């Protein structure tokens, strides 16, 4: 956690001064420094208090050293603002360069801890300028420089600085300096998400810090090992390391480290599904502490773990509440990170500006010297200087103009669709909200939703280039028809939205002009035509929101499609005599991440259905229930030890009962409803056999997410995709020259259809069969798609022989790359011949 790292850095800044004990007072000063170095800062404060009556007897350097230790201890005790003010005053004093650099290191760390980023980066720039004068202190300042670059996202620079510091201390014989430098490298690798490398550095840190006798950084190293083990899903091992770190932090009186270690303990307990009460108690106390500290990122992490704990306990409402709190804290933390980044860039800019100013001053000094020795060249040199200033001004002016143009270009791209050059979905909604609110007082307001009839056939018959040209041309014709009298944008795919401050009659007239403007298109020598269907809705006294107005227009478009396409349907004409929705069934997919993957059409079907059934993950179910409280959870039909085939028949019967009762039914299934799914296909087939309208809307499947997350192009080598037990039981041979996907690998060999967990015997049987075609060391991947925006997908690489001992969820997928291609080419490298 950031909080632990920031406070722990206070210990990095200090090393005892290289002064021999020549008298009793010097011996006392060195003892104060020694206690501070070994994390006995309370004893160090007591010694300072004993020495306070004899401060006048100390030399100026000794007084500065004692003052430095006192201020450092003040920061460790939590009074960081007072410590910061004292260190700023101390830096104004005249002192040896080596001591000054140590003061800079501690001052920078505390400034970062209280999030005064401009001050931290300013002091860093000042401190780096002293490095040539005190090379022995370089490692300490390079370490804190690495830390600050980590915080602003410059992980590559942070790693480079940390390794430079490590090279310096390895050439010496200072075990404590080696301890601290190893911690810097581990921290940089951690933030670069190189978890295995970070764990190896943490083990080296523990060994070095143990030899150096630094109790805080021994505990910090163990905390780091636990955190890296948890990041790699080795939760039992993580729990053991985190408990050790917690005990040692508490023994050293290092509260911030103890709170961070509690988070790793709680996470390991939750993921191991044991000690959930203990995890809840730890997280409750930790959340209270971090809220008091106003540490948004730590609060977000704690709330995320509480959501995971609530999900484990089956409390979906609490899980959703904690998830929302985590999202809110993450947003606040993001704002802090943004401010930190701006401060870094501002200091960088100021530094470069100062360098330019120094360069100009040096040029002026040189000019003055030349004037003194050669008056006859004065005018010439003055002209050269003025020319340099003019060139610099021109360069700066050019840079500013270029920056302004780039910002304007990026803003335009963020607001417009790149293909049609109309507004994108988000900008249409943003501008539309303002126009809709304004129209409440000024006059009528109408929404149009239009799309191309049978657009898929355009792509299938004439190619995707023809489809792109159709969209591009339609966008141009829409822009010409609207002609600045409204808002027009591409909502997605082949669907367009127009918002006009006029009535429905004028909107229909505009659409007739647009339809008349559409003409045949020629692409690659082939000419084709297309038509559009449109839905129109004018706001009335019952239209409360823009979203509702667009939805009504979308429903009118839906009717235009059912009435034969190539027409305009006005929702207001149907409002008075709107028929009851016809009985029927539509099956939709929620996608893997509901909030991002679910389509507008699927949401419309869910809202408009008379009965909604849901079989989705807890978060998708909670989000659907928020606007359809009457949604029926099909997950209640599942039970431990129950045959899933019986469950499927019960779900089948529940859906068909409502369909046969003459109701309009929407069934929502996780991911893509037609992929590895029995019930959706069965109920659609049954309804059609009974003469009832039934259809399936596509969704985003885990396979689509897999290709994106792993960087795989399925067109390069081909894909063979099978359910694991089907592959294991039947005589199926894998195509080793292509990609092989085995789904639900945790349920390998489950012929009873009752298991929800992995068993070693089934996984070993799967490995034994795969060894007929693949070597035991062949690298495979265990993949799990992310279900929430704050999650990251799992892509754990391991040898084929290690599959039986790996960790599995019910939805884990086994990815087997081809045998005849290097890993880099298979997974994200250049794919010759791919499109």
Report on this model:
Strands 2-3-1-6-7 form a five-stranded mixed sheet, sandwiched between helices. A five-stranded parallel sheet has the order 10-9-11-8-12, with helices on both faces. Strand 9, helix 27 and strand 10 (632-633) form a beta-alpha-beta unit. It has 34 helices and 17 strands. With 835 residues, it is an alpha/beta fold. The chain starts with a helix and ends in a 9-residue tail after the last helix. The longest helix is centred in the middle third of the chain and has 58 residues, at 316-373. Residues 1-22, 575-580 and 822-835 have low confidence and may be disordered. The chain has six domains: 1-133, Serine Threonine Protein Phosphatase 5, Tetratricopeptide repeat, CATH 1.25.40; 139-213, Serine Threonine Protein Phosphatase 5, Tetratricopeptide repeat (Alpha Horseshoe); 338-410; 425-574, Reverse transcriptase/Diguanylate cyclase domain (Alpha-Beta Plaits), CATH 3.30.70.270; 584-700, 3-Layer(aba) Sandwich (Cobalt-precorrin-4 Transmethylase, domain 1), CATH 3.40.1010; 711-826, 2-Layer Sandwich (Methyltransferase, Cobalt-precorrin-4 Transmethylase, Domain 2), CATH 3.30.950.
């Amino acid at each position: 956690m950031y909080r632990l790292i920031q406070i722990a850095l206070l210990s990095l800044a200090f090393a005892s001064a290289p002064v021999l004990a020549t008298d009793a007072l010097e011996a006392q000063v060195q003892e104060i420094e020694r206690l501070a170095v070994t994390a006995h800062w309370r004893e160090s404060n007591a010694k300072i208090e004993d020495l306070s009556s004899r401060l006048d007897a100390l030399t100026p350097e000794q007084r500065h050293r004692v003052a430095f230790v006192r201020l450092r201890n003040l920061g460790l005790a939590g009074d960081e603002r007072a410590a910061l003010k004292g260190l700023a005053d101390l830096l104004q004093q005249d002192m040896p360069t080596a001591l000054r650099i140590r003061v800079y290191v501690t001052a920078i760390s505390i400034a970062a801890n209280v999030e005064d980023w401009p001050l931290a980066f300013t002091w860093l720039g000042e401190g780096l300028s002293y490095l040539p004068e005190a090379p022995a202190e370089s490692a300490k300042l390079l370490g804190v420089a690495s830390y600050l670059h980590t915080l602003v996202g410059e992980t590559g620079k942070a790693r480079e600085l940390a390794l430079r510091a490590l090279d310096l201390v390895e050439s010496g014989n200072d075990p404590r300096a080696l301890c601290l430098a190893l911690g810097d490298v581990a921290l940089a690798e951690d933030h670069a998400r190189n978890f295995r490398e970070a764990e190896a550095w943490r083990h080296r840190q523990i060994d070095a810090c143990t030899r150096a006798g630094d109790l805080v950084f021994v505990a910090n190293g163990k905390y780091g090992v636990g955190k890296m083990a948890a990041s790699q899903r080795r939760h039992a091992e993580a729990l053991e390391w985190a408990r050790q770190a917690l005990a040692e932090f508490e023994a050293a009186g290092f509260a911030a480290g103890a709170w961070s270690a509690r988070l790793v303990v709680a996470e390991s307990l939750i993921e191991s599904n044991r000690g959930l009460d203990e995890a809840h108690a730890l997280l409750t106390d930790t959340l209270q502490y971090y809220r008091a500290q106003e540490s948004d990122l730590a609060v977000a992490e704690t709330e995320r773990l509480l959501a995971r704990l609530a999900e484990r306990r089956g409390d979906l409402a609490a899980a959703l509440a904690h998830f929302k709190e985590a999202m809110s804290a993450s947003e606040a933390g993001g704002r802090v990170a943004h401010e930190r980044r701006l401060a870094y860039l501002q200091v960088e800019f100021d530094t470069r500006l100062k360098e330019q100013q120094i360069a100009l001053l040096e040029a002026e000094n040189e000019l003055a010297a030349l004037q003194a020795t050669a008056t006859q060249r004065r005018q010439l040199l003055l002209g050269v200087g003025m020319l340099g200033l003019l060139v610099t001004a021109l360069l700066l002016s050019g840079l500013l103009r270029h920056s302004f143009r780039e910002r304007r270009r990026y803003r335009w791209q963020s607001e417009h669709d790149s293909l049609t050059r109309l507004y994108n979905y988000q900008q249409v909604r943003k501008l539309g909200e303002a126009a809709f609110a304004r129209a409440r007082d000024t006059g009528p307001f109408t929404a149009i939703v239009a799309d191309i009839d049978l657009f898929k056939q355009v792509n299938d018959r004439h190619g995707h280039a023809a489809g792109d040209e159709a969209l591009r041309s339609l966008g141009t014709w829409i822009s010409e028809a609207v002609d600045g009298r409204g808002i027009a944008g591409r909502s997605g795919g082949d669907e367009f939205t127009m918002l006009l401050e006029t009535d429905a009659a004028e909107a229909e007239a505009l659409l007739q002009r647009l339809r008349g403007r559409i003409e045949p298109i020629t692409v690659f020598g082939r000419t084709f035509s297309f038509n559009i269907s449109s839905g129109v809705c004018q706001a009335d006294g019952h239209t409360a929101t823009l979203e509702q107005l667009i939805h009504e227009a979308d429903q009118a478009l839906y009717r235009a499609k059912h009435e034969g396409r190539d027409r305009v349907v006005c929702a207001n004409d149907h409002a008075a005599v709107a028929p009851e929705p016809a009985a029927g069934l539509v099956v939709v997919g929620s996608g893997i991440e509901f909030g991002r993957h679910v389509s507008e059409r699927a949401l419309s079907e869910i809202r408009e259905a008379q009965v909604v059934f849901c079989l989705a993950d807890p978060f998708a179910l909670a989000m659907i229930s928020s606007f359809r409280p009457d949604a029926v959870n099909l997950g209640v039909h599942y039970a431990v030890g129950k045959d899933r085939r019986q469950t499927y028949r019960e779900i089948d019967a529940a859906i068909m009962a409502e369909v046969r009762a003459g109701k309009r039914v929407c069934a929502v299934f996780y991911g893509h409803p037609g992929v590895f799914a029995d019930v959706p296909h069965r109920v659609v087939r049954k309804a059609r056999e009974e003469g009832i309208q039934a259809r399936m809307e596509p969704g985003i499947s885990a396979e689509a997410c897999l290709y994106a997350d792993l960087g795989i192009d399925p067109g390069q080598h081909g894909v063979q995709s099978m359910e694991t037990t089907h592959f294991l039981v039947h005589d199926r041979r894998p195509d080793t020259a292509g990609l092989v996907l085995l789904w639900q690998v945790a349920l390998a060999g489950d012929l009873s259809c009752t298991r929800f967990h992995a068993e070693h015997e089934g996984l070993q049987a799967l490995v034994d069969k795969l060894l007929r075609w693949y070597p035991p060391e062949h690298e495979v991947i265990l993949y799990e798609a992310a279900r929430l925006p704050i999650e990251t997908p799992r892509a754990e690489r391991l040898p084929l022989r290690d599959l039986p001992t790996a960790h599995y969820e019910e939805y884990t997928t086994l990815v087997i790359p081809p045998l005849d291609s290097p890993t880099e080419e298979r997974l994200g490298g250049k794919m010759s011949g791919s499109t």
